[in-house]
Amino acid sequence: MSYPATTYTPSAPSMPFAPKTPVPVQAHVRRPTPVAARPTAYATQAARYRDAELGTATPGQLVVMLYDKMLLTLRRARIAFDAKQIEVRCEQILKAGEMIAELRASLDHQQGGAIAKQLEALYSFMLRELLAANRTQDARKIDGVIRMVSELRDAFAQVVAGGAGGAGGAGATPAARGA
After folding, report:
1. Among 8, 36, 140, 156, which is least packed, fewest CB within 10 Å?
2. How many separate domains does the chain show?
3. SS3 of 78, please?
4. Which domain holds residue 117?
């Protein structure tokens, strides 16, 4: 929708702070927010639900949620790869890499011991594979990372569902709490 470009010059006596030059009227007209930019009731409710879910989740449940989000992101990267959408593929691989880096940085090596070391090595390998997949345009590397993340997700979900590990269902091992 376009508005006419008219101008007005305020009178000096009635407005002592008025500018000396004419001001375009359309600069002062508040334009309606496009319908697509307005949050829908569903989107607002979904955001509230997501915030509540994150706020009440145990550390183990948060790890499982992060794995779920990572799997979704990796699958989007794979779809973008097949569709030859290079920008989307790169963006999704970058997001997945950031999630893996976050998991890697949150490992507790003192309490996790050998498991934390193995997870760190696995996370490092997955990061290298994603970078190589993007650089060499090799979809098999993305598929391999998807398989690894899926197996890790299932293992963490079993630990969390079992309630092992004590306080708050945080996980059976210290590495699960720190991952």
Report:
1. 36
2. 1
3. helix
4. 58-178
Smallest CA-to-CA distance from 133 within 105, 97, 98 is with 97
Q: Give 124-137 as a DSSP string.
A: HHHHHHHHHHHHHT
Q: Is residue 158 within 8 Å of residue 165, measured between CB atoms?
A: no
Structural domain includes residue 125: yes
Residue 169 vs residues 59, 76, 163, 165: alpha-carbon distances, Å: 8, 30, 4, 6
Distance between CA 143 and CA 132 in Å, rounded? Answer: 12
pTM over 0.70: no
Residue 5, domain member (yes or no): no
Residue 16 lies in a domain: no
Query: pLDDT tens, 23-60?
Result: 555 545 555 556 556 667 776 766 666 666 666 688 88
CATH number, position 114: 1.20.120.340
Structural domain includes residue 173 = yes
